[in-house]
Amino acid sequence: MLTAVRSCLLGTLLLTFLAGCAVKPSGVADLERFAQDATAYLPAAAAERLLVPPEEQARLDAAYNERFFAPWEQKRASLPAADAFWGVASYGNRQGYAENLQPLSRERWQQLVASLQRESYPSLARPAITVRNTVCRVFPTNRPFFLDPGKAGEGFPFDYFQNSALWTGTPLLVTHVSLDGAWFFAETGVVAGWVPAQDIAWADADFRSAYRTGQYAALLRDDVTLRSAAGDFLTRTHIGAVFPVAARDETGLQLLVPVRDADGAAVIKTARPAPDAAALKPLPLQPQRIAELANRMLGQPYGWGGLFENRDCSATLRDLFTPFGIWLPRNSGDQAKSGGTFHDLTDLDALAKRERLLQEGVPFYTLVWLKGHIGLYLGADPASGEPLLLHNLWGVRTTDSQGREGRALVGRLAITTLRPGEERADVERGRFYGKILGMTVLPGREK
Length: 447
Hints:
The chain is of the alpha+beta class.
């Protein structure tokens, strides 16, 4: 027994040592140098100025609602099998690692592939809705799939089967079922993948008609608990969730909340959130409002693909702009081409990129796009003149004297310059700027 305990402790110490080689404490000076408060960077003369005309914002919000409910308008699956089951081609020839970072066996991989029932896809076309916060997965399993955990930027938390988080009240079209019946493949307005069967309810025509009230509210805080009039728990969800408005009076909003009955059908309950927890969508699109909402998210942990109901870089921006009625796709590359004014910066050097951003970027309404990453431009720091970025960042790439790659861990939503970590000897100068591909002024700005 004692030998087993010693072996366990030795293994734990070895894993800790190996992880330490790849991931180091933050030590990114920007996190201390710059106030982690978005309101500190508001343009003094324009903090409450509307970023787009009200009639244009109303149009954008109506387009948001249309896309949100689009799955209920579909008659059939929109994805071919190759797109629905892209994980088979992407990961089938790669050595993956499962729980406890153990190699995923070939037998287990084959079981995962069989669980897809690809030969019968699509087998359904049934409207549904999420009744709790849930996951959207690449395969019908909650078990993780990591690539080589010995490499920096791999292993935990990069579970490649994790596609996205879905908040309560997300409309779906269910188009397929797993072999064991425990998972449904579903399309949403923004992402498609496998959702646990217990987390959805079937939305029949009467439910869909009653649920689409024409007025919608967005949550303004994370971890908001919604309760029925009797005080019963209905759900707990986050910024980025949208609910229909049933009534509005001096006490606030009454929201419709979907729940699942004993037969798996969606039924409507009502809830009255605290006045500061939800508001009629869209909020006035002002830098001040964006900054205040961003501050409610700052410092929150990074969550690859929505892991643990945390956010990655693109999910942060999508949820941040939802209360303003601005629709953003789920991943960074699509967000950069999301209908605003895109500026290609690929061929510019760091100085030219900096100048273009300072001259043409609209503070609090411009996205900065890097390969695999995206953030919100806040404007120039008043003291240093450096462009500042609000972004959810896992870490900054480091290289030691022997050429071994690692990460200076950030692991949260933060405000930095576009040179994060460059004060460190192990961080390459200009690398962050070098990865910038473009910037996007979001839709609706007058030319």
